Amino acid sequence: MRFGLLLLLLFSPSLLAERHYYERGEQRLVIDLSERLPDSKRDDVLGWIRDTADAMASVQGRWPRDEWRVKVIPYNTRGSDPVPWAQVNRGDPDVVSFYIDPRASRERLSNNWTAYHEFAHLLIPYRGWGDMWFSEGFASYYQNLLQARTGVFDETEMWQRLHDGFIRGRTNRRPDLSLAQLSPTMRENRSYMRVYWTGAWYWFRADTELRRRSNGEQSLDTALAALNRCCADSAMSARDIAIELDRLTGQLLFVPLFDQVAASRALPPFEEQFAELGIELENGAVSLRNTYPLAGIREAIARRESPHGP
Length: 310
Ligand SMILES: [Zn+2]
Hints:
By secondary structure, the chain is an alpha/beta fold. It contains 12 helices and 8 strands.
């Protein structure tokens, strides 16, 4: 792993930037820092991007694609959010743009969830059409795993955040609509929470069930690594990805769960699965018990490991 630094001014109408390279073996992340970013912030920003990129590489032992790009642009804000806006553009290469508060410290950047969320999007070869619940749910689930695995917070806090998300996802303004119907209209229906968190529930269920069926031999991490090996450069729909994940894992899991969730009219119950995993709830507060049969699965979800080689 090498953190190359090449100073280069790029002249384009939209972005005058200083270009940096961060390399992992044969893979390369291009980081363009807007020239409007204060000199004193550049090391902080580069460190933050590099650390989050490392966290994302730990899922599959590598980045999903060999070349990808990040842009960082200062954004003057009165709010307290260090990253008020970010977006992912899937293409060749994939580009993640961050608009950051130039006053934000390295610590505030590193403890913010946004970069984990945006980078998590890149872990599946979804190219952004249809079934937003699938992709947003994926990023909402994995952003919490990545933060726990990197030490931003501990395992208890990870389950607390997933729990709180599922509770928010129960706010249901349109119980008459299935998730498949609600997903493309979530803006008009102000139903972001149900769409995002029912999607996160899908990945939580798939991950725990895959680990349980395979006695921990398989997980969403290993399934994604296999998906990346076959299909990183393809443009797949959400259901195509579910079909491929069933084929790669030898399970009948991702597709039946996909159809169940797409037809759902509310976020499905999670309390029973939490109990099996040794996650106890009291007045909405999570505590962990290690004596439960599936507690090992629960711990493994929050643990950073890189079993797939560099
Ligand atoms: Zn997202």
